[in-house]
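Worked Example 4.2. Consider the chain below.
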Amino acid sequence: MSLKRLILYDTTLRDGSQTEGISFSLEDKVSIIRMLDELGVHYIEAGWPSNTKDRQLFDYFKKQNLFLAQLVAFGSTHRVHKTAKTDENLKRLLEAETKNITIFGKSWDLHVKDVLRVSLQENLRIIEQSVHYLASKDREVFYDAEHFFDAYKSNKDYALKTISVAADSGAKFIVLCDTNGGTLTSDLAHIINEIKLKVKVPLGIHTHNDLGLAVANSVAAVQAGCLQVQGTVNGLGERCGNADLCTIIAIAKLKLNINCISDEQLKKLTEVSRFISEVANVKHPDNLPFVGNSAFAHKGGVHIDAMMKNPKTYEHAEPELVGNTRRILVSELAGKMPLVIKARELKFDLDKKSPQAKKLLKLIQELENKGYQFEAADGSFALLLQRAFKKYKKFFQLQGFRVIIEKKQTGKLVSEATIKLKVNKILEHTTAEGDGPVNALDNALRKALKGFYPALSKMHLTDFKVRVLDAKSGTAAKVRVLIQTQDDKESWGTVGVSENIIEASWQALLDSVEYKLLKTEKARF
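Applying the procedure from the previous section yields the following structure tokens:
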């Protein structure tokens, strides 16, 4: 089935906030709503108005305008032993003053009997009264049929009655939910094809990822005729998460030819995905389709050779369409071509057949054999090229450093680093404290250099990883340290390897600072 229209419904702020370890502040939620609005999402489920923080969010947006998106208040059907008019939850939904309200209700007879503990008929009455009451208050009601696919497989006739009564009571959309995330794609598509013949209002889909099929199920639902698709950015959500709305948007635009957002908005997809990971304070998964750092990264020599001849050989879409970039990784597996490409990017003329290229490849192989890894350390690799082409410049000379860790009687740990170095024959001797030994060393180094190189004040460490390379050696094992650093324009990685974790950290830290200084010097010319 070919669709020209698809309504995007984001539930990152509600379902996504149920992810283990994630808690969005009011300010976080405001910034996320702004980003989703710019992306072109049609509906944003902002949360439960019965929750104090979410109520403040709805109050804030009563006085603020959005470019395109409509905020949606979320809640449930009225409680057992209440009526629609006396239920506090429904009252809060109306007080949010959103045009659209989503409520969920029970479709599965198992839940009606074991959770609500009411008769099947009483549950139908609760759905009918709740939807009708909200619709009578001039609200557009989206009805989420919770656990619908399990319900349909358990008791087809009753499951159908629950959504039919919601539709007859004024629901504008019936959203079929795979709440447990346990439905196979073929079963889901078959059920939707049966349902769409029996329900008068448009259908939506809401899937969870417990089988790893949330996106596949959402796409199948859209192909089967669902006009609204719900999901979260990056697949955030309880247990194994929800359908990843970023992936769904890209598939809809690039594979199904559904113009759900504009081409320019699609180019914001990677930015939005990474922004929300940053706000959620979680690492952005490298292997996310379309928007991950590795989505268009190429490491194997055969792949890279083919890519240079025609990118379509190993890419199903152009990275620029979704705001991402192609990356050619440098490693011992990749051969000389990545070295040539990286050298050109850094304005070095390197011939693939030259002795210099062979020498450089051999050096990379030797360093990787020692534990170095350059695919995530572009800063260190740029410095390695500088040295190989005899263009490396020392910005300062280390005379020595010392790191002291002291445990106080109070139990508090204090780290202090002292560093001696020379800049233009001027000796600097500096001491600084930090949260840990590496942080103290970083603070001392930059404190010593900031008078000579003010640009260092614009960079900061964003990630610090330690990997044990030989676990059998215990505490004497060699470790690899990867540091990610960022300034106001870009981010870069650096690497260090040693049996001493401080020395490995120093190598990565030193490269990080020198790469920043190298960039700053180049910018002058």
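The first helix runs from residue 26 to 39. The mean pLDDT is 91. Compare this with Example 4.1 before moving on.
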